[in-house]
Amino acid sequence: MKHLLGIEGLPAAELERLLESAAQLKSQPPRLTPTGAIVVNLFFEASTRTRVSFEIAALRLGHQVVNWTAQGSSQEKGETLLDTAHNLAAMKPAAIVVRHAASGAPAYLAARVGVPIVNAGDGAHEHPSQALLDAFTLRQHWGPLTGRTIAIVGDIAHSRVARSALHCFTALGARVRVCGPSGLLPAGIETLAPAVTRHTDLDEALAGVDAVMALRLQRERLDGVGLPGLRDYHRRYGVTRARLDARAPRALVLHPGPLNRGVELTSEVADGPESVILEQVESGVAVRMAILKWVLA
Length: 297
Ligand code: NCD
Description:
alpha/beta, five-stranded parallel β-sheet, four-stranded parallel β-sheet, 11 helices, 9 strands, about 40% helix, globular, binds N-carbamoyl-L-aspartate
């Protein structure tokens, strides 16, 4: 049984196959005859893009979708994650797409519940479909990522997006610079994958990069103590027009969403000509179709 739990450890050839499959599925018309398969979205945390695009991806493949959300569920009566998953699995869905605040929750379920599990974001651990859609978007502009340099800026410590992206980009041959305040840069992050460097100075991190990914401060994972003052944070780590013009004039701008405009990047940049933020969202459907096809094969 196949699961997609993270990018770490997936061979580059497997990532390439998923991206190729997404490219083919992107232009494929939606299937109108139902497959009979049902995909359950099991989301314990808030989501807009990820949940809707997994749903649209499943529908385009001809599957049906059931959306479970923690609010209004038996979780409110004290049911455990494992009991909830076992009960849903007893109804024989073809796959379960899980988002949970605990790092490792999807792997925990994959080892115990006899249904293919797709990780849609687990705590600060991984968000594999996001990394694949980021790589897909960049490949549409560049072709292969080999030899490119990508800066990831912001709350690296609490970002599952950063962790999956650095594994994915480096596996595909790019170099990654992670940048943020030292309190939000985990010690040893540069040892997670080859070709990763660590920076606390944004101008240094941006110099000559081919793309920059801005990340949100993960307030829900910061206990308030570690949360920097937003004005000062923006001054030091905000991606602005002036900074891009000075340090990386040809860089593409990525952001996984949701945006905090005026904090990690300005509206001028988010809506500017180098922004591929909505292309990322568009790519998300094709990439998630490829992921569902892969786990259901
Ligand atoms: C991200 C997430 O939930 O990890 N959003 C997303 O899925 N596109 C990023 C975030 O919450 O900042």
